[in-house]
Amino acid sequence: MKSRQIESGLELIARLPEQWAAEATRLGGRSFHGKQIFRWIHARGVVDPLEMTDVPAALRARLVEEGLGSVATIAREQRAADNTRKLLVSLGDGANVETVLIPRAKSAELPSPVALANDANDNAGDADAAAAVDDEEQAPEDEASALIPVTQCISTQVGCAMGCAFCASGVAGLKRHMRTDEIVSQVLVGRSRLDPGERLGNVVLMGMGEPLHNYDATARALRLLTHPDGIGLSTRKVTISTSGLVPEIARLGKDFGGQIGLAISLHAADDETRSRLMPINKKYPLAELMKGLRDYPLPRRRRITIEYTLVAGKNDTAEEANKLARLLRELPVKVNLIPMNPIAASALGPPALEGVLAFQRVLCDAGYSCFIRRRRGDDVAAACGQLALCGAKPKVRVHR
Ligand code: SAH
Ligand code: SF4
Fold first, then answer.
1. Are the beta carbons of 282 and 275 closer than 8 angstroms?
2. 164, 167, 370, 384: which is the annotated catalytic residue?
């Protein structure tokens, strides 16, 4: 069933309602059945045609023949003490990616900054950054609702081609792009694992992979995730994190009118340092990236999130904080500082607490909203890509 989908490129789960309407007619049903099928898949998370009870039996049988079924299954689920869940998702060809469910923490549960920074040996990874995107921006409906909003962090590629020095996915390299149906299916299976009393609040594309390197599949996934007849997320509730592929940032801005949230993995404020940590900077240096951010059609009152992973001895001095403050001047941003989570394949690590606080102080004094990101899911979560890469052999790397 799955191999047929891959071979034929049908990607049934990637279809929009109008495509399902045409397909339903082609398969002998009526066009309104198409909308029903779309709703079963995306609003209710049911991908087995035999469970689509209001679809005529003959059409259900045709959908089985066409190969409609699941393209992603949960191979492992790990739950942390703070209820963050890391899911290892198995794709049709045996490739694994990870997705993380991060319930909004009650403020009383937040660890103190000291606890955060003293715990330098954990490996909380992208969950920190993912939870951080907008959790200080409590939407009004959240107060009204008794349900706990959960941020889901999803992957867009198996591995990553960008080769960032501090990142497990980067060290492993790109295995392949994910298809749209695979990207969306992570949200379908993740949503099925929500606890009673939780609801899906945000989706952040901050898992394995560089979403803008897989632009077409990612953009289509965004259309599906935000479709009102399906999962129905508001575009405001979806954030793409990118290492800075400038032409694709422009394309995203144009295709979605700037409505999709943007998080930029900056990690350095000068080209030399950034190119050392993030090879993509050689292709799109800071001046180009900054211009791309200025040109992004950001709606009023919204800000770009700047992610800055602090790596001891590489990008963490007060001088670098000052440089960052100068670089970001005039841009509508908030800054998230993430002490690096150690990864197996690298000797790099986070700075000591004093360094993290001093870095933050410089940015706060310069007038920025600057947050140190707490670690979520300490006891289960691994740095970006680590869970999915368990057992994978990292390439040997030398860090300057
Ligand atoms: N490729 C995209 C999205 C996935 S990475 C990007 O780079 O933005 C999501 C975030 O996790 C990025 O900001 C990345 O820099 C950060 N990250 C990766 N490995 C990390 C680590 N070991 N410690 C801290 N942050 C890490
Ligand atoms: Fe890829 Fe992002 Fe990791 Fe860099 S930080 S290697 S772009 S996943």
1. yes
2. 384
